[in-house]
Design goal:
homodimer, 324 residues, alpha+beta, Ribosomal Protein S5, domain 2, Alpha-Beta Plaits, 8 helices, 24% strand
Chain lengths: 324, 324
């Protein structure tokens, strides 16, 4: 009645933005991500018959009420599936390089899904684990597996899950640029809703994302960094463009976001194959080859502090652990 | 056989982005602008029987070949319409506050159209002058009149012209924020072509722009700064969003562009009614009331040099002059 799991975060290269079904977290489009080695969550779940509610400790303290709510609702789902009504002690540690700003619900709910399902003796296959993680946070469905992962949008709970399409055992990595946030973030959930409901560009985004996904799968299979990067960058810009057209407009960029984008374009202009992607926040994630890391980090160091830059290779899928 | 004209530039509040007919410069959508007092062009045209080609002096020197080409082709059109094959001496001076970065072809071709048509004795009405200016540069069609001007997209040369819908004799003005350009600009002409041809969002942009134009005309007639500003800001973001989705993506923003946008949002959050619009370049134009100017300029001064900020009220239409 105890399990501990490590799960890595993932960065979407073809983005997930918009739900078809809010309750089941079924996405409007399929998406594709790369799991990252440098960012992970360790979670331990111990079922305890003596508790009257779940006991949750995150990074040594009680998380905010919104997080507690989300975790308890997720645990209720696990209890329902397992037929075991007992509460649990949940301890979770996020391992995120200082100032990276990449505290992700993807690794969090992937680790929780795996640890809780084992502690409650659900014995789930990887696709079933991905489906369970999806119910906590859509992007968590992509953190069960490592390497390049595709989340099939599906049409119901059974068909909407993610799986590895390539182990990413070739020369590709990311440099994460943490950018100071000047404004309060609008949550991804709320941002998605507003974009779906009000952006005149959203229907065209859905078509473009489907087409980008097909092209990206082929680029990954060809191990083409150039194509993976170019499709990812254009896809991210299209997602942010769909948000900018929402009513009221949604803009997650800061001045530092533009600076990082411009440096990527300048470096590419100088012959360094590098590309960016940006999620629902100001941080910029740069896709590049290992050998170009020093050149890119050195260029970025003129604009960002060393602590704001984190290099990461591809990461593995979830790992069950004895303890942590 | 001589005429001198002053024309003011204009800033579109519902943007013109994309041509239906490249040769005649017929736009895909109607647009709406405010003519500005602080930025203007003085142009003098003297027909001279002794010349073997047009003699062009701009700001005291010979302009670049591309500008000379555009001006000569425009003058050929005037010669064709007037039946007078003679060449002309053309002297033009752009009055643009230092570092504003607002050297615009709008005031340039409006002044040239008015001066050349008078020097060649074409005797054109204001709508006919607007149509002629349009052939030099689309946005120039909106600089024949002052105040708020609508360019009716039309369906042929005769029906595509601009006219004043409101003299802007109420409390509205602009603060122009000149932002350092880090990258070479892609011309509006090329940017428009690429967006029309490749952006999956362009068809939705056309619909959105038509709808914004109707709402903006009503907001102008109501003299509602809040509505004019809100519609203008959302319209500009939708235009830039359509460009970001082009292939390859088009981004005219710089880090300073984002900084100015964020300051506008922060000021608005503090209760100052101000809004921005952005054209095919990094500069940000802020729409506000006269009484809020000091507050806004003082806030922006923490981020931009004093020389980068220019305040302008609404401007008048073209004026014929004795000399300059």
């Amino acid at each position: 009645m105890f399990a501990a799991v490590r799960a890595h975060t993932n960065i979407a290269l073809v983005k997930y933005w918009g739900k078809k079904n809010e309750a089941l977290i079924l996405p409007m489009t399929g998406s594709l991500s790369l799991t990252l080695d440098a960012f992970f969550t360790d979670t331990r779940v111990a079922v305890a018959k003596d508790l009257t509610e779940d006991e949750i400790v995150m990074d040594g303290k009680r998380p905010d009420d919104r997080s507690i709510d989300k975790i308890r609702r997720f645990m209720d789902l696990v209890r329902e599936k397992s037929g075991n009504p007992a509460y649990a002690r949940i301890r979770t540690e996020n391992h995120v390089p200082v100032a990276s700003g990449l505290a992700s619900s993807a690794s969090g709910f992937a680790a929780l899904a795996a640890a809780a399902s084992k502690a409650y003796r659900l014995d789930l296959s990887a696709p079933a684990l991905s489906r369970l993680a999806r119910r906590g946070s859509g992007s968590a469905s992509r953190s069960i597996d490592g390497g390049f992962v595709v989340w099939h949008k599906g049409h119901d709970d059974a068909s909407s899950y993610a799986e590895q399409i390539d182990p990413a055992d070739w020369d590709i990595q990311m440099i994460i640029v943490a950018v100071d946030r000047q404004r309060k973030k609008i949550s991804s959930r709320e941002g998605m809703r507003r974009t779906v409901a009000t952006s005149p560009y959203y229907p065209a985004w859905v078509d473009a994302a489907e087409s980008d996904l097909l092209k990206m799968e082929q680029a990954v299979h060809r191990h083409s960094l150039e194509d993976v990067g170019r499709i990812a960058e254009a896809n991210a810009l299209k997602m942010h463009a769909a948000m900018l057209a929402a009513d009221p407009p949604l803009c997650y960029w800061e001045a530092g976001t533009m600076t990082a984008m411009q440096r990527v374009w300048a470096l590419r202009n100088d012959g360094v194959p590098c590309f960016f992607t940006i999620d629902a926040g100001p941080n910029v994630k740069i896709i590049c080859r290992k050998k170009d890391t020093d050149r890119i980090v050195s260029d970025l160091s003129d604009y960002f502090s060393a602590g704001a830059l984190t290099v990461s290779g591809p990461g593995s899928g979830i790992r069950f652990r004895e303890h942590f």
